[in-house]
Amino acid sequence: MNYFGRIRLGNLRNYFSLYRIMGLFIGYKSYCMYHHNSTEQIISYRTIKEDGSENTLVEDSGLLGDKFRPTFLVLSGLGQTLYGAITRSSPPGYQNEIIKLPDGGQITLQSIIHPNGENKGVVIVVPGITGDGYDNYVVNTVQKSIENGYSTYIINHRGLCNTPLLTPLTYHGGSSFDTKAALEHIKNKHPSQPIYGVGYSLGSNILGNYIGEQGDKCILSGAVLVCCPFRTDVASHKVENEHFGLISKWLAWSCKKVIQKHEEMYPLFIQEHGLELSSLLKDIRTLKDFDDKVTAKQFGYKCVMDYYKQCSLVPKMKNMKVKTLFISALDDPFFGPDVIPHSEFETNENLYLIATSGGGHVGFYDSVLSNDQWHNKPAMRFFNYLHAADRFLI
């Protein structure tokens, strides 16, 4: 009896020892991932010294606040991305305004006017591929903007935010013409205030295209572009091939749902573009397929690769005259690190780059106890600094 008892006791000790070892290993790996994700971070900027001379390109994370440390419960880039996709926040009470566009189309602006907004400025937000003012990342940016004293406007894409299509055109990664029209409308309403812009994913590419195309005529006084694809053709390759192509399939499904809400416009899509959407959409399975058969054709591109190359931001970055902060995650499952054009940040003094090891695609969650996203901290610091003193040639 004692013999078997000793065996059982010995086995229990072995089990506890094994669990200790496993616990220590998991803890060590978590610490390594946590430490890795919090320390490998690129901050690029240029400053002007008091004597007017220019400092060389430096790396420093202190200026824009603490480094990003992902919550230990969601460490991976894919996990951060999925967590962001399912996270919801209560949206503030927006004022909706439909504005007409030069070609006869229309979009909805969602806004909150800060009672002291005349003293600080306006922050506009351009959402991601099918996003609007009710997505958590948009709500979070709006809330942080209001807390920092800014009025906010969300520039929604055509056909979104329950806004009917009036023309057989939707939007794409380079459709900066709608953003331009919206910004001119907002500037007319706030002529004496600085306007800052935040763009997310596809919206960051659209906003970046606008800044690059406008050059010195850009209405914005500063911008933050989060998880930008930069090289749309390179980004597309990753989206199509990583994670068994599931991201591409999910994005294609989302894009199809947007256009299917406007079935009454299908005859005009046939008339204007020769697109038989009712049958065409049934066969589309991937984002690249959607862009090839729908996006490229309705906007007159030769093919999907012609669309991707012409809408890529990199060729336009040299003409970006507005102080712009890019925030990207190296573990972004959509785009990854290869899309980031580091040389453009070294040659254009108007550009900042923060590239964190972790954060995923529009994730940047450093706690599961809050829906707040870390990237809004440097974004607001950036805008506040630009508002207080124009000391940087970024």
TrEMBL record:
Positions of the catalytic residues: 201 (charge relay system), 332 (charge relay system), 361 (charge relay system)
Origin superkingdom: Eukaryota
Residue span(s) of domain AB hydrolase-1: 122-366
GO molecular function terms listed in the Swiss-Prot or TrEMBL record: monoacylglycerol lipase activity; short-chain carboxylesterase activity
PANTHER family in the cross-refs: ABHYDROLASE DOMAIN-CONTAINING PROTEIN, ALPHA_BETA HYDROLASE 1, ISOFORM A
Transmembrane segments: none
This protein's name: AB hydrolase-1 domain-containing protein
Family: Belongs to the AB hydrolase superfamily. AB hydrolase 4 family.
